[in-house]
Amino acid sequence: MAAMTMARAETRTKERGESPVQTFISRHGGMMPSFAAVLILILLFIGGEIFLRGDFITPRNISALLLDNAVLLVLAVGMTFVILTGGIDLSVGSVMAFTGILGAKMLGDGVPVGIAIPAILLGGAAIGLLIGILVQYFGVQPFIASLAGLFLGRGLAYIVSLSSIKVENDAVLWLQSTRIRLGDWYITPTGIIALTTVAVAAFVLHLTRFGRTIYAIGGNEQSARLMGLKVGRAKIAAYVISGFCAGLAGLLLTAYSGAGYPRNGIGTELDAIAAVVIGGTLLTGGRGYVLGSMVGVFVYGTIKTIINFMGAEQSWMQIIVGSLLLLFIVVQRAIVARSEGRR
Amino acid sequence: MTADIEVPPIVEMRGITIRFPGVLALDNVDFTLRPGEVHSLMGENGAGKSTLIKALTGVYAIDSGSIAVAGERQTFDTAADAQEAGISTVYQEVNLCTNLTVGENVMLGHEKRRGTGIDWKATHREAARHLDSLGLQLDTRSMLSNHSIAIQQLVAISRAMVLDAKVLILDEPTSSLDRGEVEQLFGVIRDLRDKGVAILFVSHFLDQVYEISDRITVLRNGTLVGEYPIEELPRDALVTKMIGRELEDLAAIANSSHRSIDRTGTPVVKATGLGKRGVLEPADLEIYEGEVVGIAGLLGSGRTELVRLLYGADRADEGSVEVHGEHARLHQPRHAIEHRISLSSENRREEGVVADLTVAENIVLGMQARQGWLKKIPKKDQDAVVQEYIEALGVRPANPNALVGNLSGGNQQKVLLARWLATAPELLVLDEPTRGIDVGAKADIQRKVAELSAQGLSVIFISSELEEVLRMAQRVVVLRDRKKIGELEAATTDLDALIDYIANAGEGTAA
């Protein structure tokens, strides 16, 4: 009660005129976690540079960072849509395995690339649609619905093949093997695809009504509905996009490893969620940026690279990512608490 | 200003019936709204006002009846359908997205576009224009969460204007606004009315209803009582129509409260120098057996804070509390309950009733707290107590197995009161027990409290309605700016004197 009166007085003074810093905070307070992610990335770079005595920030390493994390990046983009609505998608790891092995099998059986690739992408989107319908029309918790998707995807992957299938299709291998060079820098078609995904997602989220509906749902679904927004459609679309991205990731992974393997991507959905959260997206939805998720993926990739260089145990990777995640969730909680206190 | 009766109505609802499990929420109700009028929908909580609004806005489906907008028959399946037809609603709990900017909340779903993408510059310019027409200069790019509820409410109305609404529904828009903000809102409402917008207004504040309305429709128990031009319906007639019985009850309560209290013995509860830095300056408080102490003061003056410190819900950093003359350490609500002190919070939904349990289960929770959790209370005793309170307080529906979440606000408050009474307290602290509930339920609650205090229960009664405080209490403690400024005897104080005291006592400066 008292807090409200004070908040009211506060608003009044604000409206009279405020310093640029206050304006910035009142406009962009929600970006803080993403800024923090950028800061951590910079610190990691500096740390790596010091540890390797100036041998870390090289064009080769940075280029490899994108190449090695393109798959995770694509998954994180899809995951960002879902988490922004306040949901979660646990299915992406196994959907990626399913679409990957499906693509490898089809290409091995002589299906033309022009049919196999769309089939992969649509397969992913179809599982996303299924999860979306479960969530929207049957009121199933996203956690449970996408858990069903996880089992479904993995099961389908084993039905396609129990063992690894090598890919010998030139077009698919080209995605990975081509190096477009600029001095010591290079980028592969897979990297270009991943960056394009980020750019398209950023456009959709920030410059289309559909994208703003996604944010509104995450902020307050009931309000979004009462405002007359097409909530049901947008929510299902978020899962379809996540599924589509999982399909695309399946294609990239098949190209990257030169084979489809039904055991791929076990636990990868959790890496994607971690990257999205580290990148500053609120797990409760409504706040976050797809560019933040990209930074989150790079933080994740850089930690992995540094640990490889150090020759340390891979378990340290998990511990560090776990600690970062914990830190970010606490920071997010503080932000939410602060904005609730303001009201 | 009354709209010409010849003007064809913009909204015609005929024979609207809505059934909820076990409840007939609306029974064959007609409602007509004409362009260029402010039409108040009045009734007790549970009379069906919200249900009627939700039928008109497409949130609830109607079981029978018809809705016509501008002469065209409509069926609304979603809120979007109703908006399409030109009906916009501003709900009591502001339904906006606080994670987005002010401008975006105004324009969401109607953003200006250039080519394939949203043109944010034009969108914010448009939002600023709409806000400006309501007299609001805001940074449209600031987050909505940075603004007060009052501002958010006005933003919600701006949003309705973007939709170019022909009908604007305002459901309790003033419940969290101060006087100046209400004036600002009314200015906007009159403006819109003069532009030919039909406004459906719902409020518990009779003054405001009479200030702004041209016409009143009264509902009671889900049925239509009638539609009246404002000039033909004086206040007492309105109240009588709303609750369907005379209001002599309230006068009787006032009479029974004006008795003298024996203050020679040991007080039931005595607080000395109770305070907390930045929350409340040290204050003394004594409550004697059978006494009702009212606490009066403006919003934010420290009323709730004082009782929370007393109860142990917040920890005081100075002062002491004595119960029956003995020092008591009340550091947690549990300690207070052990000393037979109960606090009914002002947030009845968040800190009060358990919505998913039945009326009976909620009341038994209170008995169980007194008995200790392990001791089983015989079913027969439970039923008897539950029945007793349902009857004594007039809980509607009088069904012990109804879910509390389905009850109206007033009836939830009655259940909450019953639950605290079931703990057999010696001191009952009621923080805004009658806020946002209807006149009938208010009278029931006040009567019960007066009755119990006459039997020896001590009560602290907090209310923003000063008439109510004076009616209930024998002694009124006045707070201002987080400080106790004095005490008044209710019998020798009238409303004007109390208002004057709240504003001017002490240094003689206006608050």
From TrEMBL, chain A:
Molecular function per GO: transmembrane transporter activity
Q: Which domain of life is it from?
A: Bacteria
Q: How does it sit in the membrane?
A: Multi-pass membrane protein
User: Do the record's keywords include Cytoplasm?
Assistant: no
Record's InterPro entries? ABC_transp_permease
Record's GO cellular component terms: plasma membrane
- Annotated region Disordered: the residues are 1-20
Query: Which residue windows does the record flag with biased composition (Basic and acidic residues)?
Result: 9-18
**Principal localisation:** membrane
Q: Which compartments is it annotated to reside in? A: Cell membrane
The transmembrane residues are: 31-52, 64-88, 115-135, 142-165, 185-205, 236-259, 316-336
Which keywords, in A-to-Z order, does the entry hold?
Cell membrane, Membrane, Transmembrane, Transmembrane helix
Q: Does the keyword Membrane apply?
A: yes
Stored Pfam families = BPD_transp_2
Name listed for the protein in its UniProt record: Monosaccharide ABC transporter membrane protein, CUT2 family
UniProtKB/TrEMBL annotation, chain B:
* Protein name (Swiss-Prot/TrEMBL): Monosaccharide ABC transporter ATP-binding protein, CUT2 family
Q: Which UniProt keywords apply?
A: ATP-binding, Cell membrane, Membrane, Nucleotide-binding, Repeat, Translocase, Transport
**Where does this polypeptide localize?**
Cell membrane
* Positions of the ABC transporter domain: 11-246, 263-506
* Family annotation (CDD domains): ABC_Carb_Monos_I (cd03216), ABC_Carb_Monos_II (cd03215)
By its UniProt entry, which InterPro entries does this protein fall under? Answer: AAA+_ATPase, ABC_carbohydrate_import_ATPase, ABC_transporter-like_ATP-bd, ABC_transporter-like_CS, P-loop_NTPase
The record's annotation in Pfam families points to: ABC_tran
Membrane topology per record: Peripheral membrane protein
The organism's place on the tree of life at top rank: Bacteria
Picking any one GO molecular function of the record gives: ATP hydrolysis activity
Question: Mind telling me which GO cellular component terms the entry cites?
Answer: plasma membrane
Is Nucleotide-binding given among the entry's keywords?
yes
